[in-house]
Structure formats: structure tokens, C-alpha cells
Amino acid sequence: MDASMFRAWIHEAARSVTENADRLTRLDSAVGDADHGINMRRGLQAAAAMLEETNPSTPGAVLAIVGRALISKTGGASGPLYGTGFRQAARTLGQEPDVSTAQLGAALAAALTGIQRIGAALEGDKTMIDALSPAVTAYQAVIDTGGDLAKATRAASDAAEWGLKQTAGMQARKGRASYLGARTIGHEDPGAASTVLILSALAHVSSAGERCAGGYQ
Ligand code: ADP
Ligand code: MG
């Protein structure tokens, strides 16, 4: 996988978050302050624009720019959290022009660790971690058994979707939603929902890559 696949991922994520911004904001109006869709749309659109301007040539450089854009433009708690995740993923990928399926798995795992280090959320706290953590595990399980990129990213996206559904039964223990206590039960977490969109964008570009030109390696 080269920089063009990573750029395609972020453009697809920006498109999908823009399309679903109202839904993300609706989820955040039940458990927070009704800005998650607005925040994520602003952050990802800024990231996509910055990629157009700078045209980075390695996967690591793409993700570093995305991290920087999300930290400076997203706003809310989610900006620094996602931004840190992308920056940690970028660090793991280094300067290599092409990265393997296993390296992408390591980058996803580094994103999870980075977000948990600054946000201190565990699984079950009703945050983006409840979507990202099962996704990282599912991705790794597929590549450990010889699966390819398209299968691994699809498994990650499906696991994130499963995690999102689980958040409806949880009481928020982190972030703004935690102020509402038991009133958060019955609603899906907005950050877990945006994680699903970002990971399903990755699955989408991975399988599109597989259908043309022999696929991303
Ligand atoms: P804010 O809460 O500042 O309005 P957003 O609405 O953009 O920010 O993002 C809210 C989302 O951020 C939540 O739905 C949750 O998934 C995520 N979040 C909040 N705090 C944490 C945390 N400490 N760790 C992980 N994710 C968190
Ligand atoms: Mg909010």
C-alpha cells in the first residue's frame, strides 16, 4: 500500500463523515452537546484539503498530516484524540513508501494505544475505544490466519460496527457524556459511530484497490 491508497482512504472518510454528519450530531445531541458531526466534518475536510495542498509521498507522511489537521481543526474532545491516533499510526509507518498489511495492523494498534494513553478510556466506557479496540483485534486475527488486506479491513469495520451497537447498552464514563450518567444508556456513542465510518472507508478503498490493477499490496 502506497501513499495514494492512504490519501484515497482519507478522502473517502471525509466524504462519508460529511454525508453522515447530521446523524453523528443527532447521536451527540442525546449524550453530549450536539457537535460531533460538525467537528468531524470540519476536521476531515481540513485533512483532505491539506493532503491536496501538500501531496505527501509516503503513507506515514499522509497520516502525520491528517493527525496534525485533526488536532488543529476538529475541536471538541474528539480532535486531539483522533489526531493523536493518526500521529501514532504515522510514527509506526515511518518513511517507507510502501507498507504491508501487517504494518497497517501495527499502525491501527498504535492508534488505539495512543488514544488510550491520552484519553484513559477502557472498553466499556462508551467511547470510540469500544469500536476501535475490537476492530484492531479483528484485523490482527485475519492477518494471523493468512487473510489479505480487503478481508482484514472488512473484519475491522464489521467489528467496529458490532462495538458501536454494544455502546447503546453502556453508561458513559468518559468525556462530556459522563455528566449525564445513566441517561446515556440506550443511545449509541457518537465517537464510536465516527470510528465505524473511518474504518468502513478504509475497507471500501481496500476492496476497490483489490478489484483494479491487482490490488494494493
Ligand atoms: P466533545 O465531547 O468535546 O463535544 P465530540 O462531540 O467531538 O467532543 O466527541 C465526543 C466523542 O469523543 C465521544 O462520543 C467519545 O467517543 C469520544 N471521547 C470523549 N472522551 C473520550 C476519552 N477520554 N477517550 C476516548 N474517547 C473519548
Ligand atoms: Mg460533542
UniProtKB/TrEMBL annotation:
Gene3D superfamilies linked to this entry: 1.25.40.340
GO molecular function, one term: phosphoenolpyruvate-glycerone phosphotransferase activity
UniProt keyword Kinase, yes or no: yes
E.C. code: 2.7.1.121
Domain (DhaL) ranges: 4-204
Kinase found in the keyword field: yes
Domain of life the protein comes from: Bacteria
A Pfam family reported for this protein in Swiss-Prot or TrEMBL: Dak2
Catalytic EC class: transferase
Keyword terms: Kinase, Transferase
SMART domains according to UniProt: Dak2
InterPro entries referenced in this protein's UniProt entry, alphabetically: DhaK_L_YcgS, DhaL_dom, DhaL_dom_sf, Dihydroxyacetone_Kinase
NCBIfam families: dha_L_ycgS
Annotated protein name in UniProt: Dihydroxyacetone kinase-like protein
